[in-house]
Amino acid sequence: MMEESEKAKIVAQLKAVVAKVEPAAACVTKYGGTMIERVPGQPKSQFCGIFAYKDHVSLEFTNGAQLDDPERVLEGGGKHRRHIKLASLADIVDKRCEDFLRQTRDLEANLS
Q1: Which stretches make up the YdhG-like domain (predicted)?
Q2: C-alpha to C-alpha distance for 8 and 105, rounded to whole angstroms
């Protein structure tokens, strides 16, 4: 089981990366985690979410199946969503979270 303090550090760092990639985005507490809205106050603009579980933190992408992932970092086999499991702060860089956030930002901007 992951320490709560470690989960909190990962969540805080992910929020900082989101703010770097999409400065105007809003964090909304929802579904037991944090959903990120590209346009604050517009739930349909949610493009990802951050959720803390017992053994990891998950960065989840609304349309993750459309992201470029040649190294197969993203997990999940559904029609749309994909996620990245993070067990340490280093995973944020090692699993290219900023790159995936930039891709999903650009993808969502083109879909709207």
Answers
A1: 9-103
A2: 24
| Closest to 100 measured CA to CA, from 45, 44, 61 | 61
Distance, CA of 75 to CA of 50 (rounded, Å): 14
How much is the pTM?
0.94
List, in sequence order, every residue forming a beta bridge with 50; answer none if it has no partner: 34, 59
Residue-wise pLDDT for 28-70, tens only, equals 999 999 999 999 999 999 999 999 999 999 999 999 999 999 9
Residue ranges per structural domain of the chain:
4-41+53-111
pLDDT in tens, 59-84: 999 999 999 999 999 999 999 999 99
